[in-house]
Write a structure and sequence with these properties.
Layout lengths: L17 H8 L12 E4 L5 E5 L14
Antiparallel strand pairs: 1-2
């Protein structure tokens, strides 16, 4: 597990270049439609894997380490 990570939320309604991000990271060919589409990238910013949203835990206590 990484010590740190970055989460980016790109909403196509408000981010007109969202498709460019998918293309530039190589994630476009893995996107099958629908949201959320959560994926990881490597140190070069290229797609490595899709993260299933059903496996993501939402912290509800409001605290971040």
């Amino acid at each position: 597990m990484a010590k740190s990570f970055v989460i980016v939320h790109i909403d196509s309604q408000y981010a007109p270049h969202g498709w460019t991000v998918l293309k530039d990271t190589g994630a476009q060919s893995h996107y099958t439609g629908g949201i959320p589409f959560i994926f990881t990238v490597n140190a070069q910013g290229l797609y490595t894997a899709k993260l299933e949203s059903s496996r993501v835990e939402t912290r509800r206590d409001g605290f971040w380490d």
